[in-house]
Amino acid sequence: MTFYHEEAKNIPVAAETEVLVAGGGPAGVGAAIAAARSGAKVMLIEKSGYPGGVATAGMMAVWSGAEECPLMNEIMDRTTRHASLPPECNPGLSAHWLRWTVPHECQKQVLLEMLQEAGVTMQFHTLAVAVIKEGNKVKGVITESKSGREAIMAQVVIDATGDGDIAAFAGAEYLLGREEDGVCQPATLMFRVGGVDYSRAVFPRAFGSFIELPKGEIQALGRKHLPFPAGHVLLYRNRLPGEVTVNMTNTIGINGTDVRDLTRAEINCRQQMDKIVQFLREFVPGYEKCYLSASAETVGIRETRHFKGVLTLTADDILKSTVFEDWIATRNWFNFDIHNTKGPGLDHNGEENSIPPTGAYSIPYRACIPEKLDGLLLSGRNISGTHKAHASYRVMGSCLNIGVGVGTAAAVAVQNNCELRDVDIRKVQKILLDGGTVV
User: Fold this and answer.
1) What interhelical angle do 104-118 and 26-37 show, nearest 10?
2) Displacement of CA 276 from its chain's centroid (Å)
3) Exposed end of the chain (fewer CB within 10 Å): N or C?
4) What is the CA radius of gyration of the chain?
């Protein structure tokens, strides 16, 4: 590889804040709202033109993972009442499914309004590309945008980028993917189809959803007729009349922190979409007249960096429903959702139905603190955990829940002028409990 030497230059400081949240997905939204409501001056930067991350730009089908999180329930309540929600929904949508289904455009509006009401300063179309450090302490980030290269200074930086870009720039130690070989879960580009007859349609929601159709069993048909590595059939009810959210594109063997791999994933998944629509028309009742109505802005990345924190969350912690003494997010529940790293379906290390978590578990504050860095907190799927544990807490609800705890801790640290690792966790927990958190 050859190199070009870039001349040094002065970078303008565009903003100074108490808490800077990098990434506006569920983990970032939770952190920003919680920190602002706890009294901190908060700024949120996001690469897209709106908040929500995988819930909006990624076009995810449903919220899951932490249904008792107070902020998550507030979001759902406001979404259900929002004017942008269609007045009519598809028949057969149960009250529970209706509540947790993601209406993508409406969700953008709701999250934007909640961030504004909390007093969060937002800057979209902004990518963090480097960090500002003094010794081992993160003091801010360098950004790139249409306004050029700028600096944002902060007392606390929260990395809610999913991949942990800020922590990586700062030199935090991490493992990529599985511990034994660095392989990451596959990537998926979500999309929606319209023109579905709900009175006859089927909705396989899991890899173990085996449904007999006139032309054969649905998962077997998918493996036979869909282009590898696609092959599983996952279809989710949607609030939009006649529309279904599709989770069926698949790209294996990629590193989501490599732009060339990301490009390959986008191309591969988009090439699969037309063939998936054709498959649905031919083999699945109710989908005979379906058509592509919308696709996600970006491919969904399930797994990349696992950072080394003061404590590492394990699958055993989840199976034992552990409530840590320094909990900052409680009542998390989800199976070990590991997609097959070699093709369609569930990975051999995944546990969709056979051995699900036995109950709700907590996220420890120590898993959100990089072992050797100050001034920085991890929020979302980039916290310190094993490959298998991550497969449970990586879902949107748990990431939002983690964000609430981390954002609250950041505000307490600012108010008490202490290092993040020295925060009085009891003060953080009291704020969370007063806000409706249940242990």
Assistant:
1) 30
2) 25
3) N
4) 21
